[in-house]
Amino acid sequence: MAAGTTVSRLTGFVRAALLSYALGASLHSDIFAFGNTVPNALYILLAGGIFNAVLVPQLVRALRHDPDRGDAYTNRVITVAGLFLVVATALLVLAAPLIVDVATTGYDGAVRDSAIAFTRLCMPQVFFYGMYVLVGQILNARGSFGPMMWAPIANNVISVAVLIVYIGVFGQAEGNEVFGAYTSGQELLLGLGATLGIAVQLLVLVPYLRRSGFHYRPRFDLRGSGLGHTLRLGLWTVLFVVVNQIAYVVVQKLATSGTSSSTDGTGVTVYSFSFLVVMVPHSIVTVSLATAMMTTISAQADAHDRPAMARTLSSTLRAALAIIVPFVALLPVIAPDLARVLFAHGAAADVGVDAYTPTLSLFGLGILFFTIHYLVLRGFYALEQNRLVFFVQCGVAAVNIAVGIALVGATSAKNTAPALVVSYAAAYAVGATVSYLLLRHRLRGLYTRRLLSFGGRLIIATGLATALTFPIAQVLDGLSEDPSTLVAAVRLVCVGAVDVLFFLIFARLLRITEVSAVLATLTRRART
């Protein structure tokens, strides 16, 4: 799983770098970024919470208890979900103008027209995202974790190919084009290419579904099937997602205001590409650990073994933090070189480093809190306490919205993206704290004393490693005034390697066994 996610993220970086090269980091880029990200947000709003969090425990229970190993239940789920997604996608395509008007600020004239065109062309992704996640979760419930992690590579490869063709046909954005709309030909190539990538991402999983022993047959006999129980659980998850998406709409409106109001503003592109970078350790480590953990704790919850759940959750938390915390500390040190290597090319050559560095530097702390919150919520889902999750998320969304509005209103357009990162971090700091305390109460303990002991040693090891790495980074920075990508890449690799070496030494001295354990786990899974 981790290997698949790693390769997926690497190809995702190639895609992001090409987008930055072709479209820049200003309004021109934000228009496409908005149209291409809205379908994913709407899929999550309509079905993502149910597919990801509710269906896995239900599929595991059906697999364990049903005489046919859950085949009939799974067939009904696919049938109902597929029909729902087809209807929802068609309605959303028609609603594209309304969606653009609600979720953007300052988009009018040709800019609005391009945003609507991209939204319509990309909206079929809602269906393909939904079916991809559903099929992937069925595979996960049957113990096949790898394919879902590898499939996004196909999407990235197609996206890269489309962007290469785009650059060959239209070239990079130049002059006022960086702050303007698109031609119909540009819209068709980018929009349809993005949707094709998501479709292929789904199709890649189909052979693995057959190989797992499952063969789909449409089932419409829903009475007594157990789907009513699933949907009742899903009600609170849907409300959870609605709250999240309200926050998403507000963040989108605030982000689009940055680039639509000023030529040096930051917004959707800088925020989303920076998020892509900082999500790497979360995606490789946390998601891989959580995906495997979810099946385990669902079975433990089904057996009413709460002490075992607490042990599994605590162990997974420590394993994830052992990688996330050192990355968070290193990120501000390497942010300028990271921005230059990935994003300071082509249409973004003159603004890439200055635009991305503050946002990248700040985002790490937000991902730290998000990781804790994300893992703890898996415990509530396994216990089927989805209503409680909804109320926790109301607090997260409220903080994100309130802090975001306050900070963006008080700062310049150039600092729009960094301001939104601070609001994200504040929101998930609240979420992580509240959700952890509530789950600890539900499980009558989460081995908090052991977690605090581990956290103290981890902070010491991380602090010492970063303190020793920072002056080395400064020396390397002073050796060359060459702003080239190659020099930045060499410096990035050297600083990263030095920091990792220092951290591993201090982790060993302080007996942080979780570091070696998680590395061994990820290495083992990469080979399978």
Structure description:
The chain has 528 residues and is an all-alpha fold. The chain has helices at residues 2-23, 27-65, 71-94, 96-103, 109-122, 125-141, 146-150, 152-170, 184-203, 206-211, 227-261, 268-302, 306-343, 352-382, 386-410, 416-443, 448-479, 485-509, 513-526. It is globular, with a radius of gyration of 23 Å. The termini are close together. The model has no long low-confidence stretch (mean pLDDT 89). It has one domain (2-526).
- Taking all Cα atoms into account, the compactness measure Rg is 23 Å
**Considering DSSP H and I runs of 4 or more, what fraction of the residues is helical?**
over 70%
Count of DSSP-assigned helices: 19
Q: How would you characterize the largest beta sheet?
A: none
Structural class category: mainly alpha
Work out the count of structural domains: 1
Calculate the mean pLDDT score and round it.
89
Number of distinct beta strands: 0
Q: What characteristic shape results from the CA principal axes?
A: globular
Uncertain segments: none
Order of helices and strands: HHHHHHHHHHHHHHHHHHH
State the distance separating the first and last CA atoms.
8 Å
Strand content: under 5%
